[in-house]
Amino acid sequence: MERVNQILKHPKYLEAMKQLNQYEKDRLYCKHGFQHQMDVARIALLLSYERAVKVDKEKIYAVALLHDLGRIYEYQGKCSHESGSIILALPILFDCNFSEEEIHEIVEAIAGHRERSKPHKSSLGDFIAEADTLSRSCFLCEMTESCKWEQSRKNMEIIL
Q: All domains of the chain, ordered by start, with CATH?
């Protein structure tokens, strides 16, 4: 997990997180900070274990840490958060010594993480997309009624 720790200490990651936390400090709905990133990573890892699919743990954590960073660009009206996350992720991943093949797989997972997750798929991107949805505790949220998520998508009980 050395490279994951390098991501966590990378100046571009730290600056993006600082900006993201600032943009979301008054946000009433789900936030996208470190707790969300770790929830996504841990749930994706659990899903891969439960389905007996070997997925590299470092790649899971790399995607989870980077998949929503681009929200800072979305909040600025520059681009979608997926595109912004890729823009931010590429130099971080190179600096943290991920191979071109690994970077391609991580970027692909970031690009597709908002696609409606179809349970029981087995790629890195599928696990991240499903974990991203499962990470939300809608049943505890005071904003559930006004949330833009479709009712059928909301997690109204513990699912795992």
A: 1-153 (1.10.3210.10)
With CA atoms as reference, report the closest residue to 116 among 128, 124, 104: 128
**Among 34, 41, 30, 4, which residue's Cα sits nearest to residue 131?**
41
Question: What's the CA gap between 79 and 132, in Å, rounded?
Answer: 20
What tokens does 34 get?
């470190």
Q: pLDDT tens for residues 97-115?
A: 999 999 999 999 999 766 6
Q: In this structure, are residues 73 and 86 in contact, taking their beta carbons and an 8 Å threshold?
A: no
DSSP class of residue 144 equals G
Q: What is the CA radius of gyration of the chain?
A: 15
pLDDT digits over 51-77, tens only?
A: 999 999 999 999 999 999 999 999 999
Angle at 115 between CA 65 and CA 93, to 5 degrees: 30
Whole-structure pTM value: 0.89
